[in-house]
Amino acid sequence: MSNIDDKYARPTFRPVVGIDLGTTNSAVAFIHRGKPEIIPSPQGRRITPSVVLIDLKNRIIVGEDARAALVAMPDRTVAAVKRKMGSKERIPVGGQALLPQEISALILKELKSYVDTRLGEGEKEAVITVPAYFTDEQRRATKQAGELAGFVVERIINEPTAAALAFGLDHLEEDRHILVYDLGGGTFDVSIVEMMSGVLEVKATTGNNHLGGEDFDWKIVDWLAEKIIAEHNIDPRDDIRARALLKEEAEKIKKELSARETVTVSLPVVTVKDNRPVGLDLEFTREQLVALIDPLLQETMNHVQRVLADAGLVKDDIDEILLVGGSTRIPRVHELIRNFFGKEPRMDVNPDEAVALGAAVQAGLKSGSLSKSGLVATDVAPFSMGIAVLKEWKGITLRPGGFHAIIPRNTTIPVTRTETFYTTSDGQTAASIEIYQGEHEWTKHNHRLGEFLLEGIPPNKAGAEAVEVTYRYNLNGILEVTARCVSTGKEMSVTVQDALNRDSQEAFSESAARLEALWQNVDNEDFDDELVGEEMELFNELPDNGDEQLEVDQELASADMHEEASGLLARAQKLLPTLAGAERLKLEKAIHLLNNAMSGDDIDQLQEALDRVTDLMIDLEFKE
Ligand code: AMP
């Protein structure tokens, strides 16, 4: 940019990077010479698959290699963890049971290693993006993931806002309405961003955080599975490995159909029935794909109409349509947009990189490296936030559990809003402030964020005492609530954020310790001492001291490996009858070695045999 002085292009003493933590892929960028720039992996890859593998030696592998292991080692890999962010579900992976934010932290740590290589070691700040529809918990989990990875998380911003920022930097002189249609691997967002004299404001945003390219893949998987069921009367989806194989093939088919009209599907072994391989051999057309996914694409167009209505605009008010997210490469998406708006969508910012680049722009605004760009960003609240009140029911009685929005959805943030409420019964001395997020008029259909009690209200007649409730919502999507008794001035200093933070501090330390143990083990190439389930019982039975501890660790590692080996043997034996000649001999020999190693107590020998059979199985089962 010509209007950016080069001295601002140098990183500040604590660099700030922008991160797109995607469902399918992630990327990191920073501002270099006044422009956002992707920081590639040491192998030169600009986007990193959001897939984590904990391999047989307990090494943590993130990205392309982990993705390649999805089929071969489904129980050691995790993909699409973003869909679980904010939940407390422990995800089993390679003998561990990790929280979604812990797995995300492993992905972010990988990105941080690229940053450290490019910008040098030391503390880094990060702006991380989330889908506009992420709840408070999901945003918090994302922030926590960033912190667990070692970043100072400067801000959490919405992906469409970031995308618009990436686009906005080059078109500052124009005043316009931009529609950002973001269809990624797991989420869909559509937003309307208004740009006026370099000020970007998200006017409205909507979407579905469970709709994306992954769903298209599964539609294809189902279709392929139906073919196999019809021909062989066996459902390949019941076999976890066949399912993973079909999923991988489905994505390949889908991507190829963005460039071609027809693809040939040829999979000699999808699964095995009566010791015979069951495969697929067919042609699949773009038309067939469109028929499968059109209902989902139509849903995205319904969201487009909704976002226009929310922003109080009609389609002719939209000057630009910006396509982001890998799934917008599907030609049918362009066609639907073109038909609806009567103009071509733009893809002049790489759809895979737009969000990370925009996050870097936000990072640059923060660090000062873009302070002369003339760009300012605001955002909107993605949900209404409010309070439980007595509400009229069927026009006659007053019922508890009504929802009253204090910050309505799509309000520009940061925002502070205060409203006054009155006591509802005679002699009332306390008011319960129940905080909810959502759009329904009854709280039970909305999402509860917290509750606190304002005490010390002077006893008085119903309606005579007033309580002022203040909601403060900041750009990180974090809410603070305060309540004040008007007559006494007494204020409750308890806020939702404090309450939640106190809870999560403990959880954070636990997560940090868990990850530390994981990383430690990797460094030492040691076996894992994170114990779950039955293994924990075994540990508890034994005294915690030096040599014995080592023995326990080895025993656990060995138990782990035996379990792994048994599964592998079963698979190998299943595969054997389908092979002939040299391949069969090779596998027989490897099975023999593994059997021997399992009956002995040499852990290294067992590991070696395991590695050998695993490699062979990957070759045999999934060769093209
Ligand atoms: P994102 O979450 O933005 O990284 O998008 C990833 C999604 O885009 C995945 O579901 C990919 O399968 C999908 N995708 C990437 N390239 C293409 C393509 N050429 N055609 C169709 N879908 C694609």
Features:
single chain, 624 residues, alpha+beta, Nucleotidyltransferase, domain 5, Actin, Chain A, domain 4, Substrate Binding Domain Of DNAk, Chain A, domain 1, 4 domains, six-stranded mixed beta sheet, five-stranded mixed beta sheet, 27% strand, globular, binds adenosine monophosphate
Walk me through the structure:
The chain is of the alpha+beta class and 624 residues long. The chain folds into four domains: 6-170 and 349-373, ATPase, nucleotide binding domain (Nucleotidyltransferase, domain 5, 2-Layer Sandwich), CATH 3.30.420; 213-291, Alpha-Beta Complex (Actin, Chain A, domain 4); 385-495, Substrate Binding Domain Of DNAk, Chain A, domain 1, CATH 2.60.34; 546-624, Substrate Binding Domain Of Dnak, Chain:A, Domain 2, CATH 1.20.1270. It is built from 14 helices and 28 strands. Strands 1, 2, 3, 4, 10 and 11 form a six-stranded mixed sheet that branches. α2 packs across α3, α4 crosses α9 and α5 (213-232) runs antiparallel to α7 (286-311). The protein is globular and about 90 Å long. Residues 1-12, 498-503 and 523-553 have low confidence and may be disordered. The protein binds adenosine monophosphate. Adenosine monophosphate (AMP) is lined by residues 22-25, 184-185, 213-214, 251, 254-255, 258, 325-327, 329-330, 352.
